[in-house]
Design brief:
8 helices; 2 domains; alpha/beta; binds zinc ion; 34% helix; globular; two-stranded antiparallel ribbon; Rossmann fold
Length: 217
């Protein structure tokens, strides 16, 4: 054990009890996490929501995302709390709960951060999550296939300028075709970001897209 672990022991995000260094919540609080229990399917709630925006093959979300929920706290810590390793924990929970056998994507890709945001945060919160899945499922993963063109995040506003902005939010760094691509992101809210990434793949080649998110609200 390191001195830092003695001075600042890892604590459960829900109840603050001291837990193992590689845990995010204690055993007692684990049941408070709202898992969706989704399968990769053409008919769950997430697939239906994505389908309103782009032709999706199958979609799956690990958790439900509600205000003040434990899943929100976990993802907030992953993104803003400098706790990159939570990505690996979430990947392991995904492997335990979600069957990838019916999906069989050719590759995983992560939604990119802008270079400037990546520097500020120090890491992309999706990388360890996707890399862990990639390693365990033996499916290649790319973090660079899609590039983010703007620093500012697209707002939900839907005026014409905004639509154009969304259309150019991402671009391909490489043309792929005939692939089934699983796009990985943290939280799906409006779906606009996911849709912008999906359309980059759909318009550039004869590709099929599926979606995996840590949580959906
Ligand atoms: Zn706890």
């Amino acid at each position: 054990m390191f001195l830092v672990d003695l001075l600042f022991p890892n604590r459960c995000l829900a109840c603050s009890r001291i837990t193992e260094p590689d845990e995010v919540v204690c055993n007692l609080c684990f049941d408070q996490i709202h898992f969706t229990h989704f399968k990769f399917s053409a008919s769950n709630l997430l697939t239906e929501r994505c389908r309103l925006l782009f032709p999706v093959d199958k979609a799956c979300a690990l958790m439900e995302f509600e205000e003040e929920s434990l899943s929100q706290k976990i993802i907030h810590q992953l993104k803003y709390g400098r706790r990159e390793k939570i990505g690996k924990i979430l990947a392991n929970w995904t492997i335990e709960r979600v069957d990838f056998a019916d999906l069989k994507p050719d590759m995983l890709i992560t939604v990119p951060l802008h270079q400037k945001k990546l520097k500020e945060r120090g890491y992309n919160q999706l990388h360890l999550f996707a890399d862990t899945l990639s390693e365990q499922l033996k499916i290649p993963c790319s973090h660079t296939l899609i590039k983010r063109n703007f620093y500012k995040k697209a707002q939900a506003k839907k005026n014409k300028a905004q639509r154009n902005f969304n259309e150019n939010l991402f671009s391909n760094t490489q043309r792929i075709t005939g692939k089934h691509v699983l796009i990985v992101d943290d939280v799906l809210t409006t779906g606009n970001t996911m849709s912008a990434v999906a359309w980059e793949l759909l318009k550039s080649g004869n590709n099929k897209v599926s979606v995996l998110v840590m949580a959906m609200d």
